[in-house]
Amino acid sequence: xxxxxxxxxxxxxxxxxxxxxxxxxxxxxxxxxxxxxxxxxxxxxxxxxxxxxxxxxxxxxxxxxxxxxxxxxxxxxxxxxxxxxxxxxxxxxxxxxxxxxxxxxxxxxxxxxxxxxxxxxxxxxxxxxxxxxxxxxxxxxxxxxxxxxxxxxxxxxxxxxxxxxxx
Length: 167
Known about the structure:
Layout lengths: L1 E4 L5 H11 L4 H11 L5 E6 L5 E12 L7 E8 L8 H15 L4 E5 L2 H4 L5 E2 L5 E2 L9 E5 L10 E5 L7
Parallel strand pairs: 4-5, 7-9
Antiparallel strand pairs: 1-2, 2-3, 3-4, 3-9, 5-8, 6-8
Helix pairs in contact: 1-2
């Protein structure tokens, strides 16, 4: 299994993967829109030994109380049917977060299943007085920082790119 950053040749393959993974094409349209508008910070793919792209994770910028601190949002994550429940998503997300930290992006947020994302070191964002605009997401909105000081004196609304408003 190879984990690497997304290449231009992967765009259509990732688009098909997203369309086959989710019940609607909303996530595929979101990813394409983020790319087209320059709001994709990092795309990471997992490939089989034969080179087939079987998983994808996307990271895009978020603002905190209207300010850009270099924080990133993780969404969406997709794994091809037949390759799920093998730990590929965990490895993919870990790889993405490692790359982001090496590039100087200090914090990542995610809106998802707490039991799942806590395995990656995410914790409730509400603990740090951070929230997102979607109602009833207090438990599902989580944050991961590479060092505690990156969360100090940061609080308020975490805003995703405008492309997320179409979801």
